[in-house]
Amino acid sequence: MKIKKVVGITVVALVITMGIQKAMAVEEASYVLISKDKAFEIREYTPHVVAETLVEGNMQNVSNKAFMKLFRYISGSNVSRSNVAMTAPISQQVTGEKIPMTAPVGQQRVAEKWLISFMMPKSYSLTTLPQPQDSSITLRQVPAQRMAVLRYSGMWSEKSDLSHEQELTAWMGKMGLTATENTIWARYNPPFTPWFLRRNEVMIPINS
User: Fold this and answer.
1) Residue 26: its pLDDT value, please?
2) Domain 2-206, what architecture?
3) How many CB atoms lie within 10 A of CB 202?
4) What is the CA radius of gyration of the chain?
5) Where are the domains of the chain?
6) CA–CA separation, 55 vs 185, rounded Å?
7) Cβ count near 109 (within 10 Å)
8) CA 131 to CA 133: how far, in whole Å?
9) Element housing 145 (H / E)
10) Cis link prior to 89 (omega < 30° from 0)?
11) Can you give the pTM of this predicted structure?
Protein backbone atom coordinates (compact mmCIF):
# COMPACT_ATOMS: atom_id res chain seq x y z
CA MET A 1 0.00 0.00 0.00
CA LYS A 2 2.80 2.39 0.89
CA ILE A 3 4.49 1.84 -2.49
CA LYS A 4 1.22 2.48 -4.33
CA LYS A 5 0.68 5.64 -2.28
CA VAL A 6 4.16 6.95 -3.08
CA VAL A 7 3.71 6.18 -6.77
CA GLY A 8 0.32 7.89 -6.75
CA ILE A 9 1.72 11.00 -5.10
CA THR A 10 4.62 11.07 -7.58
CA VAL A 11 2.27 10.81 -10.58
CA VAL A 12 0.08 13.61 -9.23
CA ALA A 13 3.13 15.79 -8.61
CA LEU A 14 4.34 15.19 -12.17
CA VAL A 15 0.94 16.02 -13.64
CA ILE A 16 0.77 19.25 -11.62
CA THR A 17 4.33 20.19 -12.56
CA MET A 18 3.77 19.52 -16.26
CA GLY A 19 0.51 21.46 -16.13
CA ILE A 20 2.23 24.46 -14.54
CA GLN A 21 5.02 24.30 -17.11
CA LYS A 22 2.50 24.20 -19.95
CA ALA A 23 0.68 27.21 -18.52
CA MET A 24 3.86 29.18 -17.90
CA ALA A 25 5.99 28.49 -20.97
CA VAL A 26 3.38 29.19 -23.62
CA GLU A 27 5.71 31.28 -25.78
CA GLU A 28 9.38 30.77 -26.65
CA ALA A 29 12.01 32.96 -28.24
CA SER A 30 11.65 33.01 -32.04
CA TYR A 31 14.55 31.86 -34.20
CA VAL A 32 15.43 30.39 -37.56
CA LEU A 33 17.52 27.20 -37.57
CA ILE A 34 20.52 27.94 -39.80
CA SER A 35 22.29 24.58 -39.48
CA LYS A 36 22.44 21.47 -37.30
CA ASP A 37 25.30 19.07 -36.53
CA LYS A 38 24.06 16.29 -34.22
CA ALA A 39 23.32 18.05 -30.89
CA PHE A 40 24.83 21.37 -32.01
CA GLU A 41 22.84 24.09 -33.74
CA ILE A 42 23.31 27.54 -35.19
CA ARG A 43 20.23 29.73 -34.77
CA GLU A 44 19.27 33.22 -35.90
CA TYR A 45 17.19 34.88 -33.17
CA THR A 46 14.78 37.73 -33.87
CA PRO A 47 14.85 40.99 -31.86
CA HIS A 48 13.02 40.83 -28.53
CA VAL A 49 12.63 42.61 -25.19
CA VAL A 50 13.85 41.21 -21.87
CA ALA A 51 13.31 42.08 -18.23
CA GLU A 52 16.59 41.53 -16.41
CA THR A 53 18.28 41.88 -13.07
CA LEU A 54 21.86 41.62 -11.77
CA VAL A 55 22.41 39.30 -8.81
CA GLU A 56 25.41 38.17 -6.79
CA GLY A 57 26.13 34.60 -5.75
CA ASN A 58 27.50 31.36 -7.11
CA MET A 59 26.56 30.13 -10.56
CA GLN A 60 24.31 27.35 -9.30
CA ASN A 61 22.09 29.40 -6.96
CA VAL A 62 21.64 32.76 -8.69
CA SER A 63 18.93 31.50 -11.08
CA ASN A 64 16.59 30.58 -8.23
CA LYS A 65 17.39 33.85 -6.46
CA ALA A 66 16.51 36.01 -9.46
CA PHE A 67 13.66 33.86 -10.77
CA MET A 68 11.20 34.88 -8.06
CA LYS A 69 12.15 38.55 -8.35
CA LEU A 70 11.42 38.55 -12.09
CA PHE A 71 8.38 36.32 -11.63
CA ARG A 72 6.88 38.87 -9.21
CA TYR A 73 7.32 41.53 -11.90
CA ILE A 74 5.37 39.60 -14.55
CA SER A 75 2.80 38.54 -11.92
CA GLY A 76 1.73 42.12 -11.22
CA SER A 77 4.46 43.80 -9.17
CA ASN A 78 4.75 46.58 -11.71
CA VAL A 79 3.43 50.04 -12.47
CA SER A 80 0.56 49.13 -14.78
CA ARG A 81 -0.32 51.51 -17.57
CA SER A 82 -3.80 50.04 -17.94
CA ASN A 83 -6.88 51.94 -16.80
CA VAL A 84 -9.06 49.94 -14.41
CA ALA A 85 -12.72 50.85 -13.87
CA MET A 86 -13.88 51.67 -10.35
CA THR A 87 -15.69 48.78 -8.68
CA ALA A 88 -17.05 47.82 -5.28
CA PRO A 89 -16.09 46.56 -2.80
CA ILE A 90 -12.69 48.22 -2.39
CA SER A 91 -9.92 45.75 -1.59
CA GLN A 92 -6.18 45.98 -1.06
CA GLN A 93 -3.75 43.85 -3.06
CA VAL A 94 -0.65 44.02 -5.25
CA THR A 95 -1.70 45.99 -8.33
CA GLY A 96 -0.26 45.78 -11.78
CA GLU A 97 -0.48 44.03 -15.10
CA LYS A 98 0.10 40.29 -15.34
CA ILE A 99 2.48 39.39 -18.16
CA PRO A 100 2.43 35.85 -19.64
CA MET A 101 5.44 33.69 -18.80
CA THR A 102 7.82 32.95 -21.67
CA ALA A 103 10.94 30.84 -22.20
CA PRO A 104 13.83 30.71 -21.80
CA VAL A 105 15.21 32.36 -18.66
CA GLY A 106 18.70 33.59 -19.52
CA GLN A 107 21.78 33.60 -17.29
CA GLN A 108 24.97 35.42 -18.28
CA ARG A 109 28.11 36.39 -16.35
CA VAL A 110 28.75 40.14 -16.08
CA ALA A 111 32.01 40.93 -14.26
CA GLU A 112 31.54 39.43 -10.76
CA LYS A 113 27.75 39.24 -11.02
CA TRP A 114 25.16 37.34 -13.03
CA LEU A 115 22.62 38.88 -15.38
CA ILE A 116 19.34 36.92 -15.25
CA SER A 117 16.64 37.73 -17.81
CA PHE A 118 13.07 36.85 -18.78
CA MET A 119 12.11 37.24 -22.43
CA MET A 120 8.96 39.34 -22.76
CA PRO A 121 6.02 38.23 -24.96
CA LYS A 122 6.14 39.41 -28.58
CA SER A 123 2.92 41.36 -28.06
CA TYR A 124 4.85 43.86 -25.90
CA SER A 125 7.45 46.50 -26.76
CA LEU A 126 9.63 48.72 -24.58
CA THR A 127 6.96 51.40 -24.74
CA THR A 128 3.99 49.16 -23.89
CA LEU A 129 5.50 47.09 -21.08
CA PRO A 130 4.60 48.22 -17.54
CA GLN A 131 7.55 49.61 -15.61
CA PRO A 132 8.89 47.41 -12.77
CA GLN A 133 8.29 48.56 -9.20
CA ASP A 134 11.60 46.94 -8.24
CA SER A 135 14.36 49.35 -9.29
CA SER A 136 16.83 46.47 -9.70
CA ILE A 137 14.82 45.18 -12.68
CA THR A 138 15.36 46.85 -16.06
CA LEU A 139 13.81 46.40 -19.50
CA ARG A 140 16.06 46.11 -22.56
CA GLN A 141 15.66 45.67 -26.32
CA VAL A 142 17.84 42.81 -27.60
CA PRO A 143 18.83 43.01 -31.29
CA ALA A 144 18.79 40.07 -33.71
CA GLN A 145 21.54 37.59 -32.80
CA ARG A 146 23.13 34.49 -34.30
CA MET A 147 23.82 31.80 -31.67
CA ALA A 148 25.72 28.54 -31.42
CA VAL A 149 23.58 26.29 -29.19
CA LEU A 150 23.85 22.98 -27.35
CA ARG A 151 20.77 21.52 -25.63
CA TYR A 152 20.88 19.26 -22.55
CA SER A 153 18.72 18.12 -19.62
CA GLY A 154 19.30 17.68 -15.89
CA MET A 155 19.69 19.82 -12.78
CA TRP A 156 21.23 23.28 -12.88
CA SER A 157 24.76 22.70 -11.63
CA GLU A 158 27.98 24.56 -12.27
CA LYS A 159 29.78 21.34 -13.19
CA SER A 160 27.16 20.36 -15.81
CA ASP A 161 26.78 23.86 -17.23
CA LEU A 162 30.53 24.43 -17.64
CA SER A 163 31.00 20.94 -19.09
CA HIS A 164 28.42 21.63 -21.79
CA GLU A 165 29.95 25.04 -22.44
CA GLN A 166 33.31 23.33 -23.07
CA GLU A 167 31.62 20.92 -25.50
CA LEU A 168 30.09 23.81 -27.41
CA THR A 169 33.27 25.89 -27.54
CA ALA A 170 35.25 22.84 -28.72
CA TRP A 171 32.74 22.31 -31.54
CA MET A 172 32.87 26.01 -32.42
CA GLY A 173 36.65 25.73 -32.70
CA LYS A 174 36.32 22.87 -35.18
CA MET A 175 33.79 24.88 -37.19
CA GLY A 176 35.90 28.05 -37.17
CA LEU A 177 33.26 30.03 -35.24
CA THR A 178 34.19 32.96 -32.99
CA ALA A 179 32.26 34.11 -29.92
CA THR A 180 31.21 37.77 -29.94
CA GLU A 181 29.79 37.95 -26.38
CA ASN A 182 29.73 36.03 -23.11
CA THR A 183 28.09 32.61 -22.83
CA ILE A 184 24.38 32.49 -22.00
CA TRP A 185 22.76 29.60 -20.14
CA ALA A 186 19.09 29.25 -21.06
CA ARG A 187 16.57 27.66 -18.68
CA TYR A 188 13.17 26.62 -20.01
CA ASN A 189 11.56 25.45 -16.78
CA PRO A 190 10.78 26.88 -13.33
CA PRO A 191 13.13 25.90 -10.45
CA PHE A 192 10.74 23.27 -9.01
CA THR A 193 10.72 21.17 -12.22
CA PRO A 194 12.13 17.60 -11.76
CA TRP A 195 15.59 17.15 -13.27
CA PHE A 196 14.45 14.65 -15.91
CA LEU A 197 11.86 17.10 -17.29
CA ARG A 198 14.20 20.07 -17.53
CA ARG A 199 15.34 21.58 -20.81
CA ASN A 200 18.56 23.58 -20.68
CA GLU A 201 20.72 25.15 -23.38
CA VAL A 202 24.13 26.76 -23.50
CA MET A 203 24.20 29.55 -26.08
CA ILE A 204 27.12 31.57 -27.41
CA PRO A 205 26.61 34.63 -29.66
CA ILE A 206 28.66 34.42 -32.86
CA ASN A 207 29.29 36.54 -35.96
CA SER A 208 26.64 36.40 -38.66
Assistant:
1) 58
2) Alpha-Beta Barrel (3.20)
3) 25
4) 19
5) 2-206
6) 15
7) 14
8) 7
9) strand 145-152
10) yes
11) 0.77
